[in-house]
Design brief:
This protein has helices spanning 6-11, 14-21, 34-51, 54-63, 79-90, 112-122, 135-145, 172-185, 207-215, 236-244, 256-259, 317-320, 329-347, 351-355; strands spanning 25-26, 68-73, 94-98, 125-130, 149-152, 155-158, 161-166, 196-200, 223-227, 248-252, 264-267, 304-306. By secondary structure, it is α/β, with parallel strands linked by helices. Helix 3 packs across helix 8, helix 8 crosses helix 9 (207-215) and helix 8 packs across helix 13 (329-347). The protein is globular, with a radius of gyration of 20 Å. The protein binds N-carbamoyl-L-aspartate.
Length: 356
């Protein structure tokens, strides 16, 4: 149970909320330890291999066939929505989706809290993307207060909530699939420890780069290079976290400054949906923060190029078709589905069945 009122709970900082949230869903990147990340990578690999055989796929589709999932995505999404939906199908879950507030009772004035309480009457998992940065933790509080419980390996638990992106602050499952992708790219060169990772673009409002920065606490001697125009530079709260956790970082004024040095380059688009005035025309990426075809020649031979996608003009189209194995963002997308299979399997306690 949770004794705090909703307002008191929401007033806590992310780190103060963590002890309540852990194990009941996925909310913040900070909730994961190195062991968790290593375990998820192994589980995702195992799911991937198992699904290649018909017997393996059939076994997996029986694991959660008595469970219902709701994908409640009221902000635009292609990859996160589809990969969660595919992951649930792989595990045999029955799936429902709600993607537009205008056709839900929220348009009649129902509160988010009441809507969530309603969802919890019908489903056993809620995956949600919402513009409110506290929406997923609010759903957690409601799940704790609701009477429905799931039996998972002999324990009774509230209905799990997974954040598929909350406001500009966090995108924890994206950061887990990014870690999975980085770990695979660095398999032959000692993993993520000791690497230099350059994050490029809108770091201020990019929830993916914020969540990924938090996860760096789990790796030794990582250096983050923040390449962004001043108005899009990384927010102070992340810099404080990095300082507290002795993670080094440097601010760069262009991609060129770090291209020869970086082991990974993580591109992002300008998150103009958060601009004060949203127009039909998307702003162009600043010329010093566009990944150009020519940069492939300047990148280390062992480096990799990531992007959470969707992308616009921040990567030259020629890069997509350069047929360079270091360009991994399309594989990163596929990795996301396997990581989400692993996350759901673990939440529902069927990880050991998959591993053995
Ligand atoms: C990201 C997001 O929604 O934050 N997309 C995704 O989930 N892969 C990145 C973005 O929209 O730029």
């Amino acid at each position: 149970m949770i004794e705090l009122s909703l307002d008191d709970f929401l007033a806590l900082s992310e780190s103060e909320k963590l002890p309540f949230l852990k194990d009941y869903g996925i909310f913040y990147a900070q909730q994961f330890s190195r062991q968790d990340l290593d375990d998820y990578n192994i589980l995702a690999d195992r799911c991937r291999t198992l699904f290649k055989s018909r017997d393996g796929a059939q076994f997996m589709s029986g694991l959660l066939s008595n469970r219902f999932a709701l994908n409640f995505f009221v902000q635009p999404s292609s990859r996160t929505f589809l990969s969660f939906s595919a992951a649930q199908a792989i595990l045999g879950m029955k799936r429902m989706s709600l993607r537009d507030i205008k056709i839900s009772s929220m348009s009649k004035g129902e509160s988010l809290a009441d809507s969530i309480r309603t969802f919890l009457s019908y489903v056993d998992l809620v995956v949600m993307r919402h513009h409110g940065e506290d929406a997923a933790v609010l759903a957690f509080w409601i799940a704790m207060k609701s009477h429905r419980r799931l039996e998972v390996n002999g324990t009774n638990r509230p209905i799990p909530i997974i954040s598929g992106g909350s406001g500009t602050k966090q995108h924890p499952t994206q950061s887990l699939l990014d870690i999975y992708t980085l770990s695979k790219s660095f398999e032959e060169i000692g993993g993520i420890d000791g690497k230099k990772i350059m994050l490029v673009g809108d770091l201020k409002r990019g929830r993916t780069v914020r969540s990924l920065s938090y996860l760096m606490k789990n790796y030794r001697d990582v250096t983050l290079l923040f390449a962004a125009p001043p108005q899009y530079q990384m927010e102070e709260d992340i810099l404080v976290f990095l300082d507290e956790n002795n993670i080094s970082y440097h601010m760069l004024n262009s991609i060129e400054e770090g291209i020869g040095d970086a082991d990974a380059i993580y591109m992002t688009r300008i998150q103009d949906e958060w601009d004060d005035q949203v127009t039909d025309r998307h702003p162009e990426a600043h010329k010093d923060f566009i990944f150009r075809r020519a940069y492939l020649n300047k990148m280390k031979s062992t480096a990799c190029l990531l992007h959470p996608l969707p992308k616009r003009d921040e990567i030259e189209v020629e890069v997509d078709y350069a047929d360079d194995p270091r360009v991994v963002y399309w594989r990163q997308e596929r990795n996301g589905m396997w990581m989400r299979v692993a996350l759901i399997a673990k939440l529902f306690g069927c990880d050991q069945k998959i591993l053995t």
